[in-house]
Amino acid sequence: MPQFELLLKNGKVRSYRLIRFFVLLGNAAGMFYILFNAVSGKEKIWPAFVLVCIGFQFFFSAVEGFMKKFTNDNWARSIYIWCAIAWARTTFWWLSLLMLALALLDYLAHRKLLVKINKNYIQYPGFTTQKIEWPELNNIVLKDGLLTIDFKNNKLFQHAILTSDWDIDEKYFNDFCRAQLNK
């Protein structure tokens, strides 16, 4: 039974990274405020730790930006969690809830967008992964690295494909999809 896995290009990653930069910059400013207004030495430990982590994140992001090769985003997400812990230990505890929500949104924004196509259904990534049954579709075509999914309710999804699980023969893929649609 043939199954196809197509990795979609996420064209908004650059915008998400810019938003992440400003969120972390705002956290750094808040941590500096807490650090210089803290009464005891114990209150300065978490803000100082978070500032060091944010500094490392900015440094490594700049290096990755110059090299034009971005790697794993888990480090930045862990900084969101550390910021949440630091905020929870202050009078601004509600900011920790915001940071946890931003960590979740950051995870959702940067996850791999993988479309799985088999003879029973199509698994399409969205906010939650949705199953698309073949009778819901008018057509599905892969042409020149562009996946087009045409629904019967006049919705149309078009996405550039980054990679696939194997070198897809577009003719074989399109013939397979046409056969599923004609059942």
Describe this structure in words.
The protein has a seven-stranded antiparallel β-sheet with strand order 4-3-2-1-7-6-5. The protein folds into two domains: 98 residues, no CATH class; 70 residues, Roll (PH-domain like), CATH 2.30.29.30. It starts with a strand and ends with a helix. The longest helix has 25 residues. It has 183 residues and is an alpha+beta fold. The radius of gyration is 22 Å and the shape is elongated. It contains five helices and seven strands, in the order βααααββββββα. α1 runs antiparallel to α2, α1 runs parallel beside α3 and α3 runs antiparallel to α4.
Quick structural overview:
It contains five helices and seven strands, in the order βααααββββββα. By secondary structure, it is of the alpha+beta class. 16% of the residues are buried.
Rg computed from alpha carbons, rounded to a whole number of angstroms: 22 Å
Number of domains: 2
| Portion in helices | 40-55%
Order of strands, widest sheet:
4-3-2-1-7-6-5
Instruction: Tell me how many strands there are.
Output: 7
Distance between the termini: 16 Å
- Strand proportion, as a percent range, falls in 15-25%
The biggest beta sheet is recorded as: 7 strands, antiparallel
Low-confidence stretches: none
| Count of discrete alpha- or pi-helical segments spanning 4 or more residues | 5
Note the run of SSEs as H and E: EHHHHEEEEEEH
Q: Write down the oligomeric state.
A: single chain
Mean pLDDT: 84
Structural class: alpha+beta
Q: What form results from the Cα inertia axes?
A: elongated
What are its keywords?
183 residues, alpha+beta, PH-domain like, seven-stranded antiparallel sheet, 5 helices, 7 strands, 50% helix, elongated
